[in-house]
Design a protein that fits this description.
Layout: H1 3-23, H2 28-35, H3 41-54, E1 57-67, H4 93-105, E2 110-115, H5 123-136, E3 141-145, H6 151-159, E4 164-166, H7 174-180, H8 187-199, E5 203-210, H9 217-230, E6 234-239, H10 256-269, H11 279-284, H12 288-294, E7 299-303, H13 307-310, H14 326-332, E8 336-338
The chain binds 5'-deoxyadenosine (5AD).
């Protein structure tokens, strides 16, 4: 492409970026154009938008993968029930509290309990664990990522003290959803659950994989519009990565640049979003955390599960563990971690 043709394209992209920053929304066609943008301007604008709200502070979350059992059979996930080669484990309440003890000493002020959909963790068992963590660490936030549950169940978890809940919507398009999940799973059920979470006052996170099989740019635009409408406090977006023991073993991983553009677009759409540079992003690219933050992310989750559990919790191949000298790496790009709960900006004050 000639230099002048590139200049014209950049001009259009800058216009779209400015429009998104001002109006927080674009038409479907404009979103599609911006998604494939090659201009750094988009990322610069996203960084500025993040800095306006959160300065150069990056929030750390301590991730505790407490059960690898799952009743679901999602085609993309290594923990799917049909994967008989997956190693299964559950952490006890004591083991979970030990993770929190170590995490607290290391400076974590948010714990994320993440697991497969495991019927062992009834409302009674889970609320007991939530209360124990919140009683021991009242200054910490507790995030749950325990799949779809009914309204009454979620209400009990909220009343027990859980502050936030992550439940990726996976894809807002129900036909695409059916390409990724067995028939007993429905996009509408996920979305209902997300609305319940919002109603119950959880800081709520949805999200999706980039480059999942059969995903189109149009699908991603639908995801962005769904997010605009749901108005969540957090959004998790990372590349799809194939797992060798799933029906998608031979599929390609998601595209790095597309993930970064989506992060930047989300930051401009919702400047106060809690937006992680995900483990999946750092798995497909050595500098994934830095690139994610430079595209507008402001959260990093680090695994604080016992080492024996980490080896077993494999949702995709080659998943990286906790990163060494992360503090320095983040400093190198002009940001710093903060020992803080890291709630959504002004949460509870509006
Ligand atoms: N690649 C990337 N992300 C995945 N997830 C599950 N399987 C994969 C995979 N193969 C994501 C899903 C899920 C979250 C916990 O992990 O979006 O919601």
């Amino acid at each position: 492409m000639t230099k002048s043709a590139l200049c014209v394209i950049f001009k259009v992209m800058r216009k779209l970026t400015d429009k998104l920053a001002q109006e927080r929304i674009l038409s479907r066609g404009e979103f599609a154009e911006l998604l494939t943008c090659e201009d750094d301007y988009l990322h610069e604008a996203a960084r500025k938008a993040r800095e306006n709200i959160y300065g150069n502070k990056i929030f750390l979350r301590g991730l505790i993968e407490f059960t690898s059992y799952c009743k679901n059979d999602c085609f993309y996930c290594g923990l799917r029930r049909s994967n008989s080669s997956a190693a299964r484990y559950r952490l006890s309440k004591e083991q979970i509290l030990n993770c929190c003890d170590e995490g607290y000493d290391a400076g974590y002020r948010t714990f994320v309990l993440q697991g497969g959909e495991d019927a062992f963790f009834t409302d009674e068992i889970l609320t007991d664990i939530i209360r124990a963590i919140k009683c021991k660490y009242p200054d910490c936030a507790l995030t749950l990522s325990t799949g779809e549950r009914g309204f009454e169940s979620l209400k009990l978890l909220r009343e027990a003290g859980a502050d936030r809940y992550l439940l990726r919507h996976e894809t807002a398009d129900s036909a695409h959803y059916a390409e990724l999940h067995p028939p007993e799973m429905q996009a509408s059920a996920r979305q209902k659950c997300l609305r319940d979470l919002k109603e119950l006052g959880f800081q709520t996170g949805c999200g999706f994989m980039v480059g999942s099989p059969k995903q189109t740019l149009e699908n991603i635009v639908s995801d962005l519009l769904f997010i605009k409408e749901l108005d969540p406090e957090m959004v998790g977006v990372g590349p799809f990565i194939p797992h060798s023991a799933t029906p998608f073993a031979k599929e390609k991983a998601g595209n790095l640049k597309l993930v970064l553009n989506i992060l930047a677009i989300l930051r401009l759409m919702k400047p106060s979003l809690l937006l992680p540079a995900t483990t999946a992003l750092a798995t497909i690219e050595n500098q994934g955390y830095e690139l994610g933050i430079n595209a507008g992310a402001n959260v990093i989750m680090q695994n604080i599960s016992p080492l024996t559990a980490r080896e077993k919790y494999k949702i995709y191949d080659n998943k990286i563990g906790a990163s060494e000298n992360l503090k320095q790496r983040i400093k190198n790009i002009g940001c710093e971690f903060t020992v803080a709960r890291g709630d959504y900006f002004n949460y509870g004050e509006q």
